[in-house]
Design brief:
The complex is a heterodimer of chains A (about 210) and B (about 100).
Chain A lengths: L10 E5 L7 H13 L3 E3 L11 H11 L2 E5 L15 H15 L8 E6 L17 E3 L4 H16 L6 H21 L4 H5 L3 H12 L6
Parallel strand pairs in A: 1-2, 1-3, 3-4, 4-5
Helix pairs in contact in A: 1-4, 1-7, 2-3, 4-5
Chain B lengths: L4 H17 L3 E6 L5 E5 L7 E3 L2 H15 L2 E5 L5 E5 L13
Parallel strand pairs in B: 1-4
Antiparallel strand pairs in B: 1-2, 2-3, 4-5
The chains are: A alpha/beta (about 210), B alpha+beta (about 100).
């Protein structure tokens, strides 16, 4: 019996950096996934420290039909920093499970994001031929690229990238209001747990002004 | 981008006023197709685009003044940069002449 298939068709695994510089892109990415009717799943939303991280990743990959992998940290952010290899590693696990996993996993769809269009070819040419899109480090470009990809792979009717970006700006007002009422400092905002952020999106989507 | 205390206070005051009065707003955001866009809340399907932020803010400020709505200017990542309330409309006989 294969475990972890509840919500498989409506779940999307997000594999991305969790550094401070990536936060604007992460917020945009989680928002667009929600707006397109899918449930974002991230390793950081699994808080049980009793599980080894690689097991959490495997379970997430196995329980999500869709996945987005941002490998833009294959280049170090600053001179002297090391490049990050977790994202390409998890991408490899995801691509591999289509060939070596249960039959249902062969229907998995994944999008690979990079910052610049062909930069990945210098260090990871094996993935050429997959769906790879560039976000230019810009949250609205990322939102548009993910939306366009989801339009194709889910065959859902989705709002345009313009509409989604406007809705995101309206949500940001709601978020700022909620954080102010909860007495969050700017430091708290920057360290906001993604689970909390998702909670604020859900709260906004049920509020009268969101539709 | 870190807000100054004054900018933060203006945003908070605007949000509280909005909550009390339920007014719509005019927004300035970066445009998906480059440049900057201005839209009115409740009409997200329509917007006007501009090549520069200054042009967008100038147009939006005039629109907000005419409609007597608050103006919200967003940062490059969708966050809040500033919140402005329109000056009260001039009444008859207040021209100073």
């Amino acid at each position: 019996m294969v475990r972890g298939f509840d919500g498989f068709e409506s779940s999307l695994f997000i594999n991305c950096p969790f550094d401070r510089e990536y936060v604007p892109l992460l917020h945009s990415l989680v928002f667009v996934v929600f707006e397109c009717g899918l449930q974002p799943r991230l390793a950081s939303d699994q808080t049980d420290s009793g599980h080894v991280r690689i097991d959490k990743i495997r379970n997430l990959i196995r329980s999500c039909r869709y996945s987005v992998h941002d490998i833009s940290r294959i280049e170090a952010l600053r001179p002297g920093d090391e490049p990050r290899f977790n994202m390409p590693f998890e991408l490899g696990l995801d691509l591999g499970c289509r060939y070596y996993g249960a039959p249902r996993l062969r229907d998995k769809q994944c999008l690979i994001l990079e910052k610049e269009r062909y930069r990945y070819q210098r260090v990871l040419s094996d993935i050429s031929g997959n769906d790879i899109r560039a976000h230019e480090g810009d949250p609205k470009v990322l939102m548009s690229e993910v939306r366009n990809w989801l339009r194709v792979v889910t065959d859902k009717v989705l709002p345009s990238g313009d509409i989604l970006w406007k809705r995101f700006s309206l949500f940001r007002i709601h978020l700022a209001h909620m954080l102010e009422e909860l007495r969050f400092s700017e430091r708290d905002v920057e360290a906001l747990e993604i689970v909390e952020y998702i909670g604020f999106i859900k709260n906004w989507k049920t509020s009268p002004g969101s539709n | 981008m870190r807000l100054t205390e004054a900018e933060r206070a203006a945003i908070i005051a605007g949000m509280r006023k909005l909550k009390a009065e339920g007014k719509d707003r005019v927004h300035v955001i970066t445009s998906v197709r480059r440049g900057w866009a201005v839209f009115r809340e409740g009409t997200e399907g329509k917007h006007k685009t501009f090549r520069t932020k200054e042009e967008a803010v100038s147009y939006a400020r005039e629109l907000a003044r005419r409609l007597q709505k608050d103006l919200v200017i967003h940062t490059w990542d969708g966050g809040l940069e500033s919140w402005e309330s329109p000056p009260p409309p001039q009444t008859a006989g207040s021209s100073g002449l």
